[in-house]
Amino acid sequence: MAFDFTHFVDVAEELLTAPTTFPRACLRAAGGRAYYGTYGFLRSRLITEVGDCFNRRGKHRELINHCEQSSSPHIQRIGKRLATLYALRVRSDYDHEDASDPTQTEVETMIDLAKKACEKIANLHHADVKSIHGSF
After folding, report:
1. Does residue 24 sit in helix, strand or coil?
2. Measured between alpha carbons, how far is residue 119 from residues 20, 60, 99, 113 in Å?
3. 28-65 per-position pLDDT tens digit
4. Which of 126, 129, 115, 124 is nearest to 38 (CA)?
5. Measuring CA to CA, which residue among 102, 63, 57 is closest to residue 79?
6. DSSP characters for 52-118?
7. SS3 of 16, please?
8. Which of 117, 134, 133 is nearest to 9 (CA)?
9. 18, exposed or middle or buried, with CB in 10 Å at 0-12, 13-18, 19+?
10. Burial 28-66 (b: 16+ CB within 10 A, else e)
């Protein structure tokens, strides 16, 4: 059975509620899991339904750009949400300044955004999945 990437979004929620001695790390990790849950879910749909266009590479920016530039408003919304989540993930993973720490509210908002994006991805028609895949 294939891995369900949406469980990363569930992990993000758990990171916010679990007792920890590393709250800053949990906030940063939760943002990353919210992004990867969404990105991984879309990537998995593309690979499962049409074929592997990623060749074991991420192609994060390419996938986001294609979705944002799609003629389909549904796919554009997915792209916008992915771009927002990606920005938080990059900030959380690479910016070392204290000011880069995401807030609890910000991460909660990102998790909500990830859930909405995953719902939209789940509701994509096969033709939409083929359209996204065809850009690679």
Report:
1. helix
2. 30, 19, 31, 10
3. 999 999 999 999 999 999 999 998 888 877 799 999 99
4. 115
5. 63
6. --STT---HHHHHHHHHT-S-HHHHHHHHHHHHHHHHHHHHHH--SGGGSPPHHHHHHHHHHHHHHH
7. helix
8. 117
9. exposed
10. bbbbbbbbbbbbbbbbbbbeeebeebeeeeeebeebbeb
Residue where the block lists tokens 């990363």: 8
**Token pair for residue 120?**
């939209």
Give the list of residues 6+ apart from residue 49 with CB closer than 8 angstroms, or none. 126, 129, 130, 133
State the Cα–Cα distance between residues 119 and 19, nearest whole angstrom.
Answer: 29
Residue 10 host element (H or E): helix 7-17
Q: pLDDT at residue 2 above 90?
A: no
Q: Would you say the pTM of this structure is higher than 0.90?
A: yes
Tell me the two tokens of residue 71: 């003629």
Query: What are the phi and psi torsion angles at 85 (to 5°)?
Result: -65, -40
Q: Cβ atoms within 10 A of the Cβ of 3, count?
A: 9
